[in-house]
Amino acid sequence: MGIRFSVLSSGSTGNATLVANGEVTLMVDAGFSAKRIDELMMERGVTGQELTGILVTHEHSDHIKGLGAVARKYNLPIYANEKTWAAMEKAIGNLADDQRCILGTGDTRDFGSLRVESFAISHDAAEPVGYNFYDGKEKLSVCTDLGYASDKVKEAICDADVLVLEANHDIEMLRMGRYPWNIKRRILGDLGHLSNDATGELMSEILNGRLKRTYLAHLSREHNMLDLAKMSVRGSMEDRGCFFRDSEFKLCETYYDRPTPWDVLSER
């Protein structure tokens, strides 16, 4: 069947994504209440009983708010590296031993015919990661919450068919916004979040004939807008000599309050 996915919701207030291939269904992060996650899954025709497990990128609350509750409700294993487990353990509450699974940074694990690979990213968390998903020749990369894209990140995502990538903020909106300067400095730093311009720069470096779609994710509700993000990322790419037609490559939206439609990688 191949890979299909839906970004259930993405933004500063919460994040969760479903990745499936007809054999297994995995959730990446669970940054909402269990009730809200059930509602979002229902919009995509999925129930908690269909989940195989939950992958965690890092321990910030907008990625693990409902993690413990969802895992207990559906008796699901949770996969994270050791430092992330240590950082989030108190927040997610009691779990059975067999629900605590280690997936080390840089490791791969097969869930049936779906292979998952984690890779290191730069963010102010214990040991944050992104994930690559493989099924046959198909590859999906999910990479948000990073202050900058290292060469290793570029290497990890450069041959994806579809990419979910952070475009968190417009720099001028952030600078003029109401956040105190220490928070702004954190967001703008190498352990913070990618700006629209930085996302465009990264895209101009990795865009090739294989990558068909990039979903702009984790947009700040305070310091970004969907149309602005798409326009700015495209403009940043064009400023660096990277031009494309929508028939060749598309910038796609994610939403803070609803899921994206199912994207089936084999339908290109």
From TrEMBL:
It catalyses: 3',5'-cyclic CMP + H2O = CMP + H(+); 3',5'-cyclic UMP + H2O = UMP + H(+). This is MBL fold metallo-hydrolase. Residues 13-191 form the Metallo-beta-lactamase domain. PANTHER family: EXODEOXYRIBONUCLEASE WALJ (PTHR47619:SF1), METALLO-HYDROLASE YYCJ-RELATED (PTHR47619). Counteracts the endogenous Pycsar antiviral defense system. Phosphodiesterase that enables metal-dependent hydrolysis of host cyclic nucleotide Pycsar defense signals such as cCMP and cUMP. Pfam families: Lactamase_B_2 (PF12706). SUPFAM superfamilies: Metallo-hydrolase/oxidoreductase. It comes from the Bacteria.
